[in-house]
Fold this sequence. Notes:
Elements: E1 11-13, E2 19-22, H1 28-46, H2 51-62, E3 68-73, E4 76-86, E5 89-97, H3 108-122, E6 128-132, H4 142-147, E7 151-161, E8 176-180, H5 186-196, H6 202-205, H7 212-224, E9 230-231, E10 237-241, E11 247-257, E12 260-268, H8 277-291, E13 296-302, H9 306-315, E14 318-329
Parallel strand pairs: 5-6, 12-13
Antiparallel strand pairs: 1-2, 2-3, 3-4, 4-5, 6-14, 7-13, 7-14, 8-10, 9-11, 10-11, 11-12
Helix pairs in contact: 1-2, 5-7
Amino acid sequence: MGLHTHIEPQRxxxxxxxxxxxxxxxxxxxxxxxLEHETRTWANxxxxxxxxxxxxxxxxxxxxxxxxxxxxxxxRVCGYAFFVYESSKGVVGDLYADQSIRIPGSSVERLLATHxxxxxxQSPGIHRIEAQLLPHESGAVQEPFVQEGFRQxxxxxxxxxxxxxxxxxxxxxxxxxxxxxxxxxxxPAASVITAAYRGHIDSDINDQYRSLxxxxxxxxxxxxxxxxxxxxxxxxxxxxxxxxxxxxxxLLCSRVREDVGHVTQVCILPEYRxxxxxxxxxxxxxxxxRSRNFNALxxxxxxxxxxxxxxxxxxxxxxxxxxxxxxxEG
Length: 330
Ligand SMILES: CC(C)(COP(=O)(O)OP(=O)(O)OC[C@H]1O[C@@H](n2cnc3c(N)ncnc32)[C@H](O)[C@@H]1OP(=O)(O)O)[C@@H](O)C(=O)NCCC(=O)NCCS
């Protein structure tokens, strides 16, 4: 991800006494208490160990390359937001505030969101902005996004408790076999992702899915970098056509806590759907995680992706949270 540094420092005093300042005025020691607060929130809401992400963000803050804003009240950082530039796209990386600060008629998150949206929309060459606000309940910070013409996509955070639910059966067709993810799978998996999400709502939310190049970039980020948990090779599988040896389905799993897995991707080529291949991939991942004494497997899904949502329900996943993705196209 390319980090540009052309944002002018801004000082915006708010009537409430909260100031919104350029994030690059701050160092990790100013932000650490807030990120520790956020780490506790991720643990409580999503059983997600956010510590390594928080450390990575703090390192970026110290190197002054992270564009974004800090909300300051009485000399204390009570909220922050940052974004990254990926060619002509701006992606909101995080938006978080210590909920103990309540401003009448507004909130620190909304102030931060307003600043981030304004900055990105005014950045030359930025034609698209994406944001997924996992720790925020759907609707909680929608106003600044919706006002500025973003489309809003409610998404679900679902969890399968592995200790209390029965084992899912592997029940796919004989022409298909399964094996663990390997280095050779990047290119074929990128093709599967591009084909699986053609015309799909998730490629409105994440435009990487729309091209082979973007899907490869997505895979690289998931497998090689710890942004969305640590990739778990042993719990990640591909479905292969026995005769042609073509990859026709993929499930990628990361570890977001010592004992919690997270499905970062699951998709099947359209012509192979409805034959329990997706279900079998999820079964394989859960068998692996159970054998290692994991407690849960989580995933996120767009609420209007009803086929996927009902499959997850049937397999025992429960809805834990509803959050929003926002997209703006200039
Ligand atoms: C979601 C997805 C991975 C499921 O894979 P799959 O192999 O089709 O799943 P299964 O066959 O195990 O189960 C799908 C359900 O839809 C039914 N179905 C029937 N025809 C179908 C079709 N043409 N397409 C999708 N589902 C179909 C299945 O019978 C099954 O219903 P059930 O749960 O009541 O038994 C797959 O549809 C897909 O790749 N979708 C596009 C990408 C996507 O949305 N990924 C999930 C993101 S969170």
